[in-house]
């Protein structure tokens, strides 16, 4: 390609990468046009019978930008002969997904009787790798529907298996859509990070197999403390299998830490608690030569807990695990309540996000997989009322009631109109949360300022509450009446 003649820049048009276009190329297994850099140098030639390796190279080119001949711009449009909307494609095969859930059920039953071992680890790696390969081989994987609820509602598997299956698949979708699978140094798709998140999602709660769990929503302090032990127990169980990498074990150990730091938030267990528990286990094992590898891993985990300095990717992976867990739990029938609908579950997560997740975390859930989980129906729409939070230079939080004016591609970044400010009612139980908002503490915005969140990339303002008429009727009625004044 380096010897190819240069094309004059005035003959080139910007190649706009988008999910629908790339999906159509994948479906037809071809790259129908030559791609050039801004100076007219050929960087990728058109190709029939394109492979996943070719599409991996195409994704790399996306990062640097690409151009095509203006005469080839017809290939930048999906032809009218496209018979189906890729956004309506159901991404998961019922038989394969049910088989995965059944395999999960078998593993849980085995772990109630025996220790986790290398054979279990290899089976987990194999089954999870198959799920990821099946998902990414679908040409519509970046835009199709996550029909996981539809399948598991009829799979006939126990709650534990349903939760693990659902959590693993939702976490996979979030990771794949927020970090595209590129090509490694060996020119093969690099799926290591994606498989690590999936494996951690699958193994995060295996510690429950060693606990007797109460079938009730209101836990005693002792019961709650026992449940809090499960990340440590899950981590310790994986130590017997060297096939589980240290990175995966770190995620398992920390999967209930969705937000950085130890201040007022929903982190549990916090760093100090994890550190103390790991120290006790290390002190118990350090004199046993047979536990040398286990002690080495615990030492590494202690350094991570002590430093509390993690990469952005690590923090995001923990948030993905936690969000996928919450979604799986809310959409699953429990002994004390029926499952919530997908849309309601997503709204509940947003409405409980202020102390738990960053704006970026919620964006990863709603903007990349949210609509796929709700049959391409947004949970934030024109005319809806939401509450936003923002932090000023003195680190004071401000809460505004706003009306949605426009929603483009990303539903977490709509155009909004500020109606008034309001004060939240905080409550501390097992966790800190916003219990409600005080409608007696409202200050009107006479300007009715219009804010485009999509254009406010440096702003701290974000949606932290959706005012839903079924979830909070008194607040919704009060805001609707106020909006008509």
Automatic annotation (TrEMBL):
Gene3D superfamilies: Hypothetical protein af1432 (1.10.3210.10). This is C-di-GMP phosphodiesterase. It comes from Leptospira mtsangambouensis.
